[in-house]
């Protein structure tokens, strides 16, 4: 149970809530509900009594009573007998004014605590690739007995997996030994290890603007200073290497984090000439380039580029099976010089002592035949991408969608700065979104939204129609853009 809100504190949070576009009780309930969804009124908070709130807001008591009953009916306010109602979330998906979802609560999909019927566009991730993952685990179990006599700890990773990953880099034109590989629990874990080993509070870290939100959060968590370098507009494609070079020379950052292979969220692919310039400029400024290749296998248009590490032995590469196979593998890696890998391993043992063995044995099978499930995955993604771009053109013609070269999402420019407000309204319309500002530094990208095309076309159509409905609501009540400025804290991938 949390605290309580005084009428004055609630009035302050409500701001200009009454605009006369709907009955006063509806407007009041709407803004309270959005404040709860937004996290600005914590769950379990007791709202003021009807009498005191009506006096403070200078509205009739009937208005507050009706607003509170509407919130109760929608599942956002508990119905304590004789006590003040406390804020809560609906136990089933809230389906707007038209009626409550009678669905059976949370979906059974592991890792996705999303109410049934809600389409999750905050995650750009796919289900496991066909039978490959299952078969890899079956094979891993037959290999397990040979490892059971050992301790089961290995901060660097199971040797067979390290060899398989090294082989993958060598095949891609970057000669690599198993000693240059550290196995991690995914790319996010890998980035945290690299950050902890390389970056201190006084350092600067260069990032692309926009970039992958969880990486940004991890970089910020080091306490370092973040140096964002904007990507050029969609019409120019690529990266702005002039801006990158001058930021490197001016700030001399300790580290630069880049996603050149199907950049998240734009889906762009960095041309080889720009890769060359990037590593050259970083060598001059004394910056360690950390390349996140999590999305590298999701090459939708067949563009050919060399892995960034092929341009300089100083590059630190991060990879993962999360997008090529399944995020549930929780398996990723770092490729770097052998001496850096030893440093990373020492840092890793401050966080954990190694990855689970069966997962690593299974991952080794997947890495050895990395390309096998990709054709089917890529062809479905191409179809989804085409469907999403067409749906956006038809239903949201004023949104400018950038056609991605690869990856899993489309980065859209909105005709107004309402990304956060759309994100807050969205669950009510059956979708979950990641607000544009999550992808940038300094609250920018309020007029951008990332939309994954990981769902089949029929579900994408439902999602785009819901986006259209959310947009219509926002246009009917533009004040929501002002009241709903803070990005909800929610999981994104
Ligand atoms: C660019 C990028 N890096 C890292 C990750 C996280 O990867 P993992 O699941 O391996 O931690 C993602 C997931 O969406 C991503 O898009």
Bound molecules: pyridoxal-5'-phosphate
Instruction: Tell me the radius of gyration.
Output: 25 Å
| Overall CATH class of the largest domain | Alpha Beta
- Overall number of structural domains: 3
How is this structure best described in words?
With 493 residues, this protein is α/β, with parallel strands linked by helices. The protein folds into 3 domains: 7-89, Winged helix-like DNA-binding domain superfamily/Winged helix DNA-binding domain (Arc Repressor Mutant, subunit A, Orthogonal Bundle), CATH 1.10.10.10; 132-368, 3-Layer(aba) Sandwich (Aspartate Aminotransferase, domain 2), CATH 3.40.640; 374-483, Aspartate Aminotransferase, domain 1 (Alpha-Beta Complex), CATH 3.90.1150. It is built from 16 helices and 12 strands. Helix 10 (272-285) links the parallel strand 5 (255-258) and strand 6 (288-292). The protein binds pyridoxal-5'-phosphate (PLP).
What is the compact description of this entry?
It is built from 16 helices and twelve strands.
Question: Helices and strands in order, then pairings?
Answer:
Blueprint: H1 7-14, H2 24-37, H3 50-57, H4 61-74, E1 119-120, H5 132-147, H6 159-171, E2 181-184, H7 187-198, E3 204-209, H8 213-221, E4 225-230, H9 241-251, E5 255-258, H10 272-285, E6 288-292, E7 316-320, E8 332-335, H11 338-348, H12 357-368, H13 374-395, E9 400-402, E10 409-413, H14 419-425, E11 431-432, E12 448-452, H15 457-476, H16 479-483
Parallel strand pairs: 1-11, 3-4, 3-5, 5-6, 6-7
Antiparallel strand pairs: 2-8, 7-8, 9-10, 10-12
Helix pairs in contact: 1-3, 2-4, 3-4, 5-12, 6-12, 7-8, 7-11, 9-10, 13-15
Bound molecules: pyridoxal-5'-phosphate.
Pyridoxal-5'-phosphate (PLP) binds next to helix 7.
């Amino acid at each position: 149970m949390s605290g309580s809100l005084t009428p004055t504190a609630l009035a302050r949070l409500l701001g200009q809530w009454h605009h006369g576009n709907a009955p006063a009780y509806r407007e009041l309930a709407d803004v309270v509900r959005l404040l709860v969804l937004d996290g600005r009124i914590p769950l379990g908070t007791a709202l003021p009594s009807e009498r005191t709130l009506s006096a403070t807001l200078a509205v009739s008591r009937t208005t507050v009573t009706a607003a509170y009953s509407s919130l109760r009916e929608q599942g956002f306010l508990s119905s304590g007998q004789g006590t003040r109602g406390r804020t809560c979330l609906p136990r089933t998906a809230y389906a707007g004014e038209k009626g409550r979802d009678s669905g059976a609560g949370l979906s059974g999909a592991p890792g996705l605590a999303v109410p049934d019927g809600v389409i999750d566009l905050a995650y750009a991730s796919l289900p496991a690739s066909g039978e490959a993952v299952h078969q890899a685990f079956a094979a891993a179990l037959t290999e397990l007995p040979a490892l059971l006599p050992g301790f089961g700890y290995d901060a660097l990773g199971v040797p067979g997996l390290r060899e398989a990953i090294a082989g993958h880099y060598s095949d891609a034109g970057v000669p690599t030994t198993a000693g240059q590989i550290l196995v991690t629990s995914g790319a996010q874990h890998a980035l945290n290890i690299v950050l902890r080993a390389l970056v201190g509070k006084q350092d600067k870290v260069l990032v692309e603007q926009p970039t992958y939100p969880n990486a940004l959060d991890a970089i910020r968590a080091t306490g370092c200073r973040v140096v964002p370098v904007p990507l050029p507009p969609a019409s120019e494609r690529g990266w702005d290497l002039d801006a990158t070079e001058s930021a490197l020379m001016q700030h001399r950052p300790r580290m630069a984090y880049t996603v050149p292979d199907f950049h998240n969220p734009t889906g762009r692919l960095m041309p080889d000439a720009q890769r060359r310039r990037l590593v050259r400029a970083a060598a001059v400024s004394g910056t360690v380039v950390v390349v996140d290749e999590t999305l590298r296998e999701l090459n939708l248009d067949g563009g050919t580029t060399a892995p960034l590490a092929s341009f300089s032995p100083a590059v630190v590469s991060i990879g993962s099976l999360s997008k090529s196979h399944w995020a549930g593998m929780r398996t990723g890696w770092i490729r770097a010089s052998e001496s850096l890998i030893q440093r990373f391993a020492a840092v890793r043992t401050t966080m954990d002592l190694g990855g689970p063995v069966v997962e690593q044995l299974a991952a080794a099978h997947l890495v050895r035949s990395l390309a096998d499930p990709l054709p089917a995955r890529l062809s479905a993604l191409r179809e989804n991408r085409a469907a999403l771009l067409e749906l956006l053109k038809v239903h949201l013609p004023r949104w400018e969608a950038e056609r991605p070269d690869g990856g899993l999402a489309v980065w859209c420019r909105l005709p107004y700065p309402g990304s956060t407000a759309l994100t807050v309204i969205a669950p009510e319309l059956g979708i979950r979104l990641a607000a544009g500002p999550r992808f940038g530094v300094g609250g920018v990208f309020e007029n951008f939204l990332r939309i994954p095309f990981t769902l089949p076309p029929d579900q994408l159509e439902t999602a785009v129609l819901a986006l259209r409905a959310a947009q219509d609501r926002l246009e009917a009540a533009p004040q929501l853009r002002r009241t709903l400025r803070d990005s909800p804290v929610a999981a994104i991938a």
